[in-house]
Amino acid sequence: MFGAYFDESSRDPARQAHRFDRIAGRYDLVNDVASWGFSRQWTQAFAHAVVESVAEPAVESVAESIDERPGLTHPRPLDGCADGVDGSDDGRTGHPIRPLEGLSILDVACGTGTSSRALAQLGANVIGCDISEGMIAKARQCETAHDVVAARAGGARGSVVYCVGDATDLGFADNRFDAVTCCYGLRNMPSPVEALRQMRRVAKPGAPIVTLDFDMPAGLVVSNAYRLYDAVVLPLVGGLLTGHPSDYRYLTQTIEQWPGRRGVAHMMRVAGLRHPQCKPLTMGIASLNRAWK
Question: Measured between alpha carbons, how far is 186 from 266 in angstroms, rounded to an integer?
């Protein structure tokens, strides 16, 4: 009710790349400020969901439930020192717990690499791809931070390689990755179902696809308050910190018109994925979805 007319042509990959190139430098800062820090908790929940989904392959007897699934609940602390992933060790040796060690994961629409680094902190070898060269440049810059380099050299984290790529035309071989992930990117794609089909194609048989994105809270009062906050605060904060309020007005409109976790679950089924499940986070402001090839 608060959004303006949404021009679907704005999802064109070239326009998307240009838009995110402009805001890449302060994208993470805006996320932290506008979400009141919840974005870091959501990254932790996302990383936990990937660990859980890899450890719990889909079976035919598992119900395709929505929201009430026992999994995808409250994340336990995970290894890591940045990007919202808490540190943890095995309690005996003091060495970090790396439940994704040795796994190959593709992180689609990786942005500045927050999600990719969270997975690498858990031992995964990650390829992060994004349509925006500006986002990839920022991600590579973060990968050269002193603590990240030291952790990688000491074997305390997996590797991350970043590349520019279109989620609807992934340049990777079939059946390559142990898991495929996507944070905050699916709703910006011209064809989310085609992107999910591509994720399914490059995933190994039985591998999970895990997504994290914004959603809409239930209840008229809360949802309207959230829409108003999103429509006013996000463009204001984003505009002040990046100088591009129109880009954040666009993001607000994509959130308002996105079908949310139940819509993503349906898209996953259409894309041929099995047993889609979802879980709301923070009163439904964000949500996790997962399914298996």
Answer: 13
DSSP string, 13-71: HHHHHHHHHHHGGGHHHHHHHHTTTHHHHHHHHHHHHHHHHHHS---TTS---SS--SS
Polymer length in residues for the chain:
293
Q: Which residues pair with 213 in a beta bridge?
A: 287
* pTM metric for this prediction: 0.84
Where b means 16+ CB within 10 Å and e means fewer, 122-131 reads bbbbbbbbbb
| Dihedral in degrees, nearest 10, Cα atoms 107, 111, 114, 118 | 0
Q: State how far the Cα of 198 lies from the Cα of 170, in Å rounded to an integer.
A: 6
Torsional class of 196: left (φ above 0), alpha (ψ -120 to 50), beta (otherwise): alpha
Distance CA 231, CA 277 (A): 29
Q: How far apart are the C-alpha atoms of 164 and 226, rounded to whole Å?
A: 33
d(CA 158, CA 214) in angstroms, rounded, equals: 27
In one-letter notation, the amino acid at residue 95 is H
Is residue 231 over pLDDT 90? no
Q: What is the pLDDT of residues 116-170, one digit of tens each?
A: 999 999 999 999 999 999 999 999 999 888 788 888 778 889 999 999 999 999 9
With a CB cutoff of 8 Å and minimum separation 6, the contacts of 107 are 113, 115, 116, 119, 126, 127, 128, 129, 180, 181, 182, 183
